[in-house]
Amino acid sequence: MQKLSILGGGESGVGAAVLAKQQGYAVFVSDKSTIKTKYKAILDEHEIPWENGKHTEEKILSAPTIVKSPGIPEHVPIVQKAIEKGIAVISEIEFAFGFTKSTLIGITGSNGKTTVTNMIYHILKNAGLSVSMAGNIGDSFAYQVATNPKEIYVLELSSFQLDGIVNFRPNIAVITSITPDHLDRYNYEFEKYIYSKFQITKNQTEEDYLIYNADEESITNWIDHHEVKAQKLPMSSKSISRVNSICKQNNNIEININNKLFSMSLENLNVQGEHNAKNAMASSAVAKLLQIRKHTIRESMESFQGVEHRLEKVSQIDQVTFINDSKATNINATYYALDSMKHPTIWILGGVDKGNDYHELLPLVNEKVKSIICLGVDNSRIIEAYGNVVDELFETTSMQEAVAMAKHLAEANDQVLLSPACASFDLFENYEDRGRQFKDAVRKLA
Fold this sequence. Notes:
Layout: E1 3-7, H1 11-22, E2 26-31, H2 37-45, E3 50-52, H3 57-60, E4 65-68, H4 77-84, E5 88-90, H5 92-97, E6 103-108, H6 113-126, E7 131-135, H7 141-147, E8 152-156, H8 159-163, E9 172-175, H9 190-197, E10 209-213, H10 217-225, E11 231-236, E12 245-249, E13 252-257, E14 260-265, H11 274-289, H12 294-303, E15 312-317, E16 320-324, H13 331-339, E17 345-349, H14 362-368, E18 369-375, H15 380-386, E19 392-396, H16 399-409, E20 415-418, H17 431-445
């Protein structure tokens, strides 16, 4: 019986373990931290041996392959020892790929990938197709392949997941954007991060498609200097006068694939903003490639409600609007959030800094922000960047304190925006936990 070791007993690790057991592997799951009760229950139900709070090297390194959870960096000792021994270290996405013949749509990007994943899923579900979302969202890809197989998977893929692929090949790949993010994981080298994102297309063939944001130099430069075998579909907010392109013309989306034109008004979208126009362009193009009816695409895009924790209007209290953008974990995402603010803004930000250049936001801060509330363990770089820019800057250590401070500072017609520009792991479990705590704190004000 072939052995498989799994590092990390979270969503992806447990999903890979269930699939591996189903496929006849002798599986062992190891997590240096404490495995959550719900995941222990799944492992026990499937009679999969596990450990937490330690790594038993002898057991882990006895397998020819290790599935590594995306949150574990490559530089940790156990992973380095595995690599030195010639053990294959792969991602759960790569492992699951070997056991499915389904159509795969892979979406990656520094920003927009969650919204695009949800948009595509919404369209395909409305079209009556057998489809599910997986990857960085919902139940893991491997767990779904094992327990609830579908004909189409829409996969949200982080750079960490793509770092661990060997043969994984999506039929349609989408790159929404590549701006500096997670640079702490890539030795603060933007080029390495770009390379990781482009792993999504490395195994694609001439039969596959790559939809990409042609308005970003980081993406077009890479494509100009590297071979891409997939059929390329550039996406731009400007007019692109060639076959096989996606562009914005006179507030319309225009998609031209093999001389077949699809057009849709952006005015009818339920989610607004320049970034959502791009998201709609990518999603509609995927739907056209899958030959979804025009009417279904238009109807779906008009009914799409948006994504939790992404510019989510929580409440209006005493004429002050509270907006949850907890999913903004980098500077570029927060740029879109600040840019969309129409009234004086009290901005809550901070967390685990991933190599941010806060000065990129200075023009928007000058124009839009009246007060800043820091919410993080170490706010020194934020204070350094904005201390002399806004009249009021405060430090807080809990969401309840931050929201109460924002309510105290706000006047009628102001907006309170949680858009942290940072990861959440200093004070919160993840960005979802941070966003839910914000919403709970706001609702308690009412």
